[in-house]
Amino acid sequence: MNDYDKAAKWIEESNRIVAFTGAGISVESGIPTFRGPEGLWSRYDPKVLDLSYFHQHPEECWRVIKEIFYDYMGDKARPNAAHRLLAELERLEKLGGVITQNIDHLHQEAGSRHVVEFHGTAQTLVCTACGDRSPFTEHDLNKLPPLCKKCGGVLKPDFVFFGEPIPPEAYRESLRLVHEADLLLIVGTTGEIMPASMIPYEARNARVVEINIEPSRYTEELTDLFLRARATEAARELASRLDLTL
Ligand code: ZN
Predict the structure, then answer these.
(1) pLDDT value at position 42?
(2) Ligand 1 centre from 132 Cα, in Å?
(3) How many other C-beta atoms are found inside a 10 Å radius of the C-beta of residue 195?
(4) In sequence order, what are the beta bridge partners of 117?
């Protein structure tokens, strides 16, 4: 029995699967990563996502934010086989939820219903003055910074900036999911971003299957079965053994 056979068998034996995903699941959908030599931070200054800098220079930050998150990623990206595998496992009532560090909404577009967006989402904007939330599509991003239609305050993307806390509800729900999990699938994340990186360690009663192109901090410390592969490659291998069409 090879590792994919074993992982497929574990999936078959589980009915409270939780997935924990990061940039590596979306990179094959064309979403650029932030870190690493090819990452966005090699071209842009991360200070545009620093909360206090944003408050002081909203227009300057928004010009870059628009380019990265609303022009560049845009709505061209489509979910891939790995997103679809997780959606399919949820539909079959084997998977209880996806905890994602991504803000790209691709899990939902693949059909996943219970998605915990640990770092928030780019889909909505939140008013820095009154807290009102609205879809980004309701705003003209050619006029920056976009302003709240209710109070005139500066809007910011509804994802977590540097210096900003994790949304408490996302944190709570992530812990609930992993505490109840019988199988944790770590997909495309090497656990570099705190505090998200600590979530898998809370899965005390779960087998842990990790899918990454390189070993991570989890591989030695936590992982029971390491599938060294791109997310879509692993998803296809698993789907064929589980008789699923992606
Ligand atoms: Zn407002």
Answers:
(1) 85
(2) 5
(3) 11
(4) 100
Q: Specify whether 119 is catalytic.
A: yes
Q: What is the pLDDT of residue 72?
A: 67
Interstrand relation of 120-127 and 133-135 (parallel, antiparallel or unpaired): antiparallel
Low-confidence ranges of the chain (pLDDT < 50): none
Indicate which residue of 83, 105, 107, 119 is catalytic.
119
Of 83, 80, 105, 92, nearest to 19 by C-alpha is 83
Going from the Cα of 183 to the center of ligand 1, the distance in angstroms, rounded, reads 42
- Residue 131: its pLDDT value, please? 97
CA of 154 to the centre of ligand 1 (A): 7
Q: What is the pTM of this model?
A: 0.94
CB atoms within 10 A of CB 245: 7
Pick the CATH number of 32-76+122-159 from 3.40.50.620, 3.30.450.20, 3.40.1190.10, 3.30.1600.10: 3.30.1600.10
Topology of domain 1-30+78-119+165-246, CATH:
Rossmann fold (3.40.50)
Residue range(s) in the chain whose domain bears CATH number 3.30.1600.10? 32-76+122-159
Distance 134 CA to ligand 1 centre (A): 10
- DSSP state, residue 243: T
Task: Return residues with CB closer than 5 A to ligand 1 (ion).
Answer: 127, 129-130, 132, 148, 150-151, 153
